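ASSEMBLY PREDICTION REQUEST
Request ID: AP-0331
Submitted by: J.K., bench scientist
Number of chains: two
Total residues: 597
Priority: normal
Notes: Please return the full assembly, not individual chains.
Input sequences:
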Amino acid sequence: MFRCAAGVGFGVIRMSDQPSTGDDHHGHEPTSQAGPGAVRAGRDSLTWLNEHPPPGPFRPEFWRSPLRGPWLTSMLGLVLLFGITILAITGLVSYAAYDPRLPGNDTTPDSGLLAFYLFDWPTRPVWLYRFTQGVHVVLGLTLVPVLLAKLWSVIPKLFVWPPACSVAQAVERASLLLLVGGAVFEFVTGIMNIQLFYAFPFSFYPAHLYGAWIFLAAFVVHVAFKLPRMVRSLRSRSLFSELRTGLDATRPEPPDPDGLVPARPADPTMSRRGLLGLVGGASLMTFGLSVGQTLDGPLRQTALLAPHGRDYGPGPNDFQVNKAASEIGIDPAATGPAWGLELAGPTPARLDRAELLAMPLHTYVLPIACVEGWSTEQTWTGVRLADLARLAGAVPGSWYVVVRSLQRRGAFGRAALSAEQVADPRSLLALRVNGADLSLDHGFPARIIVPNAPGVHNTKWVRKLTFRPARSG
Amino acid sequence: MRWVGYALGGILIVLGLAGLALEGVLIGWALWFGGVLVVHDALLAPGAAVAGSMIGRWPPAVRTALILAGTLMLATLPTVLALGRRADNPSILPLAYGLNLVIVLAAIALLAVADHLLSASGKD
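STATUS: Completed
Returned structure:
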């Protein structure tokens, strides 16, 4: 609220203790009035300060858009309520998809209680991670205009004067700080990360994950507080009739207790329909420019501004890579004739590429789905992980595997795959893709491809598979 | 009920902060958390307010186009400038993003002109 006076809950006429200046009941003269009588000490000067905000945005008269009001804010809030809930679920699901309970997989090993919801990540449906992570990234980009519009709609609240006059209000404003800071932090780091611009001085994974929990805490508190008011505000006007109201008939909403409706509204230069259309159009634009990187075929080229939007060409290895061989220190000589796959288990073995190619080969169409949101489906040929497990003396279905790569630099040079992933008949040590040998950048001589696993768990340039019995229960 | 919300929220915040601290990213997180707030409150919001007061009386189609263009560039700046491009990985950021941005901006401008011409005949 805008005022500190106790017992006055509805502060439309904020600064009501202030003398009115004639017939302009919205105006006031902040410096002319020091109260009747003599100057009083301490408490009164504080009261004076409370009632005389600094000039500019701290004065309610500064904010004049006639579109601001609880209905508009609630409309945008409703979209964000659903949208951010989906972002939260898909984001937390992505953490689970990395199977962090398997040894060495957890990029945030100190998550403790926050890991309460983890579950065994399934291998079917094969498109699940492609879908959830595609939604996380594309929806995040789609919500950028909605978030900006929502922040615009409540910006006068940032300048509420006095800053706080009760503990409860101070707590509320602190929670808003976490809410806004958390939202902007999550969007900014997420967007920078998918655009491969790692300018932040921290590791993305833990900062984005724990930052999300802090943001979600503020989000849940905010929703719990505002939900009744949001429902009430949404009922105060009909969306349908707003969408039929042009500029000429656009009027400010009735004064509200939060002071979102301007004290001195200007004439509208845009209707609510126009504003909602603008936000919707902007969202449609960011959606349309990013969704293509989750699609194969000609539609991929619609991702004009996506970091992995390119459709490479007709060659069998002409599709995206996240990390190139040269980038993470793969020595091409180590992938030549000297290369051999080491199998560790009860019956260790070493197989060169020719021996692997002589084993029963299977071909499946499986997607590569990156945490950055892009994905592509390809046709992979290779040896079943289950067959390699048996060769090493392991029992498919109750043994998991630790995969090690030749890579020397960068993350995910090793990944653990669950017993279920090892046992799935479509989980391959792939040797070929689309009928040709893997290219060096795609993991030659051999790479993992597991249905529904996050992209980076499909380890490239595999040198060693270590099978271990899974802990039961 | 309200206190349950406070308590749950407080616990989550503490757990989140503890996680950040244990993973050694608390300081970096705090710097950026405060940083994005400052950028939003001190640059983006006043910038939008000033821009709004300047273009407030321009034709709706023009304002719409400018807001769309601004939002788009804000959300895609790292890609358009190809800030994450690497010589040893031609697969990332492979497109001519400057050109593509111009194409999208031109499409926005075209729509704005079309809208302006159409609404000149029939009032919005």
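REVIEWER COMMENTS: Chain A touches chain B through 78 residues (CB under 8 Å).
SIGN-OFF: pending second reviewer
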